[in-house]
Amino acid sequence: MTPSERLDATFTALADPTRRAILARLMQGEASVMELAEPFAMSQPAISKHLKMLERAGLISRGRDAQRRPCRIEGEALAQVTGWLEDYRKVWEGNFKLLDTLLAELQANQGKA
Amino acid sequence: MTPSERLDATFTALADPTRRAILARLMQGEASVMELAEPFAMSQPAISKHLKMLERAGLISRGRDAQRRPCRIEGEALAQVTGWLEDYRKVWEGNFKLLDTLLAELQANQGKA
DNA sequence: TTTGTCTATAACAATGTGGTTATGAAGGAT
DNA sequence: ATCCTTCATAACCACATTGTTATAGACAAA
Fold it and tell me: Where does the HTH arsR-type domain lie (chains A, B) (predicted)?
């Protein structure tokens, strides 16, 4: 998977409220599929599909405990996408600073005129 | 639009490589639709649709200059989604610290035993 | 006014997403 | 052995996404 494809998968995974809620739940610690499904008015296969997308994006990983497949968050994918956004934010804030400087100079010149 | 719907729209918008490339281009400054379309092997209506999704997510806004509709980045939506991810990252790193503490304690106890 | 440029929209096709029910496989528990 | 729980997969449906071509609107230029 290329970096771009990984971003595709991660952003796609984060674009659904059910999946974000699942991630929020997993922040508190591991959980089985049934445990994750419980709060939602949704069938178990629907949750399994959501988990598959989260796993494909590298946002979660799954273990084995008898019949259960406990899910846990993987921080790396989250860190990568945060990093990507941070880069943009930095450039953007840089632009703002540039604009601020420009406006300050403009105002200074007006004062002089 | 609820905060959750805004996150849906923003993550969906960011989940496409063409749209991310458009944002990258707009980091350098305003650009018209034709200018944005130029680097892509894609029709102008396709680009217009991408711009519509970016606009719906609040990631860009558009002005008017004769026939042209110059696009520019809106930092706020980017800041919001970055904030959301940061919250998660913090909790996640918090968990890591917790784990580190746990491991340190465990090792200390082993030393004592 | 006619022409040309920039952009949006409509109509369409292919594919992806998000849900369902039905069913099967893995693995305790009785 | 049999049953129950957990989970995944297949088949299906409705709708969204992503591209296409064709066309129309707004506006400048001739």
Answer: 1-93
